[in-house]
Amino acid sequence: MLKGKIAIVTGSTSGIGLGIARELGRRPRVERVRRRERDRIDPQRHRTPTSVRAIHDGADMSKADAVRGLIAATVEKFGRLDILVNNAGIQFTAPIDEFPAAKWNAILEINLSAAFHGIAAAVPQMKKQRWGRIVNIASAHGLVASTHKAAYVAAKHGLVGLTKVAGLETAGSGVTCNAVCPGWVRTPLVEKQISDIAAQRSISQKEAMKELLAEKQPSSDFVSPAQLGGTVAFLCSAAADQITGTAISVDGGWTAQ
Question: Which residues are designated catalytic?
Answer without folding.
Answer: 152
